[in-house]
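Ops channel
N.P.: pipeline sanity check, posting one input/output pair.
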C-alpha cells in the first residue's frame, strides 16, 4: 500500500526533535508499507525582516528533499505571515497541490494521512478531493483544542473534518469535540500515540542522577515541554514557590527541560520569586537523553491548559515515574491514583498540594511501567494502516497496492 503522510510537525535537518511523535509513526510504517512524507516548512516570503524575530525564525535553508533512514521526505515551503493565520491553509494548498500532482504521476497514492488540521489538513483535504484520493485527518491537540475556538478558523477546520473520509483522534475528549463539529461517529476512530518501550525503561534513580549531576538527596520535580503559555509553566513556578515557602526541611528542586519564547520571562519570574538555585533551566535535550532525566526525577509535572496526547507522559510512565498533570486530553486515561495525581488547571495552590502528595508516596515503579506496556509505536502505526486500508477498500472496492514485503518479491 502506498501511503502519503503529510504533516508540518515532522523532523528536519535543523529541528531533529520537531514532531518526533509523527516521525515514530512514520518510522514504524516504513518497515512494512510504502510511505512517503511531505513535511511543509513555513517561510515569510517577502516579509524577510520578520526573520529577525525569534518567534518567527525562518527555516529557509532546510533542503526541499531529505532522506531519513533511506526514506524520502519532502520539505516544500509555504508563506506563513504572522497575523494572517486564516490564510495559511490557502498558501499551503498552493505549495502542496503541484507537488502531490507530480508525485502521483509516477507513484500511485492509495491514501493520505494528514497529521495537524490547520493549515495542513484543510489544504490536504481539498487537494485529495480534487485528485480523487481518500484522506484521513488526524488532529493532534492545539489545532482542535484552540484553533477551533477562533471563528474564522473554526469554519475552515469544521469543513475539513466533515468532508474528510475519516478522522482519527488521540482521546475521548477530542472525539467529543469532533462530534460537536459535525463529524459523524462512524467516521471517527480513537488511536492513542504509543511509546518506545525499548528506549524508555526503568533505570536506577541514584545512578541517573549521578550521571546528570542532580543531587542524590533532593526531591526533584521535572517539566519537559515547550515554554509557551498553554503549557502552564508559570503556574508550576508559582506552585513550586509555595511548596518551598511551606517547607521547613529537605531539599526541593525543579528542572525545566525545553525551550520557547517564554524562556526569558520565566527566568525573570524565577529570580523575582527568589528561586534561583532551586530551579534549573536545562534547555532542550536530545530525545535519546530524555530517559535519564525521566528516571532521575521523583515526578513529572505537566500543568497544561490543553493537551492532545502528551508523549512525554507515556515516556515517563514507561520509566516508572509518577506524574502530576492537568486533566486535559489523554491525561485522565493514563494518570490515575496508581500513577500520579490530577491537578486543576491554572490553580497553583492545588498543583502544589498534588505535587506534595505525589512526592510523599512510595510508588510501585514496575506497576507504573505496566500501565503503558501494551502501547507501542508499532501497534499505533498498525492501527493507522488498518484505518487507511479500510478507506481504500470502501472506495469503489479498490485493492490497495501490496505491502513493502510483497512489492519486493
Amino acid at each position: 500500500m502506498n501511503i502519503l503522510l503529510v504533516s508540518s510537525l515532522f523532523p528536519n535537518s535543523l529541528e531533529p526533535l520537531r514532531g518526533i511523535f509523527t516521525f515514530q509513526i512514520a518510522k514504524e510504517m516504513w518497515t512494512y508499507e510504502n510511505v512517503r512524507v511531505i513535511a511543509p516548512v513555513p517561510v515569510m516570503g517577502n516579509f524577510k525582516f520578520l526573520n529577525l524575530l525569534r518567534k518567527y525564525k525562518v527555516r529557509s535553508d532546510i533542503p526541499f528533499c531529505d532522506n531519513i533512514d533511506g526514506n524520502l521526505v519532502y520539505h516544500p515551503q509555504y508563506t506563513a505571515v504572522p497575523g494572517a493565520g486564516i490564510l495559511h491553509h490557502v498558501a499551503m494548498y498552493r505549495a502542496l497541490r503541484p507537488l502531490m500532482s507530480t508525485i502521483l504521476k509516477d507513484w500511485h497514492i492509495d491514501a493520505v494521512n494528514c497529521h495537524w488540521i490547520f493549515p495542513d489538513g484543510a489544504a490536504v483535504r481539498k487537494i485529495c478531493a480534487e485528485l480523487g484520493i481518500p484522506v484521513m485527518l488526524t488532529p493532534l491537540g492545539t489545532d482542535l483544542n484552540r484553533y477551533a475556538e477562533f471563528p474564522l478558523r473554526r469554519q475552515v477546520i469544521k469543513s475539513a473534518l466533515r468532508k474528510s473520509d475519516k478522522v482519527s483522534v488521540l482521546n475521548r475528549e477530542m472525539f467529543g469535540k469532533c462530534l460537536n463539529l459535525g463529524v459523524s461517529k462512524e467516521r471517527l476512530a480513537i488511536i492513542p500515540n504509543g511509546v518506545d518501550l525499548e528506549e524508555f525503561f526503568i533505570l536506577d534513580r541514584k545512578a541517573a542522577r549521578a550521571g546528570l549531576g542532580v543531587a542524590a538527596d533532593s526531591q526533584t520535580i521535572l517539566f519537559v515541554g515547550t515554554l509557551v503559555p498553554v503549557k502552564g509553566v508559570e503556574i508550576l513556578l508559582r506552585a513550586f514557590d509555595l511548596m518551598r515557602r511551606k517547607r521547613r526541611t529537605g531539599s526541593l528542586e525543579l528542572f525545566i527541560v525545553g525551550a520557547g519564547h517564554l524562556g526569558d520571562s520565566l527566568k525573570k519570574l524565577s529570580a523575582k520569586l527568589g528561586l534561583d538555585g532551586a530551579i534549573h533551566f536545562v534547555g532542550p535535550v536530545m530525545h535519546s537523553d530524555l530517559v535519564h532525566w525521566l528516571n532521575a526525577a521523583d515526578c513529572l509535572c505537566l500543568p497544561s491548559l490543553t493537551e492532545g496526547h502528551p508523549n512525554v507522559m507515556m515516556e515517563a510512565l514507561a520509566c516508572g515515574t509518577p506524574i502530576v498533570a492537568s486533566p486535559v486530553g489523554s491525561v485522565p486515561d493514563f494518570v490515575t491514583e496508581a500513577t500520579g495525581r490530577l491537578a486543576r488547571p491554572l490553580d497553583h495552590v492545588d498543583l502544589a498540594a498534588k505535587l506534595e502528595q505525589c512526592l510523599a508516596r512510595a510508588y510501585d515503579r514496575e506497576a507504573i511501567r505496566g500501565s503503558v506496556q501494551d502501547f507501542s509505536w508499532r501497534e499505533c502505526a498498525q492501527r493507522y494502516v488498518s484505518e487507511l486500508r479500510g478507506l481504500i477498500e470502501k472506495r469503489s472496492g479498490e485493492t490497495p497496492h501490496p505491502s513493502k514485503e510483497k512489492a519486493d518479491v
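N.P.: looks fine end to end. The mean pLDDT is 91.
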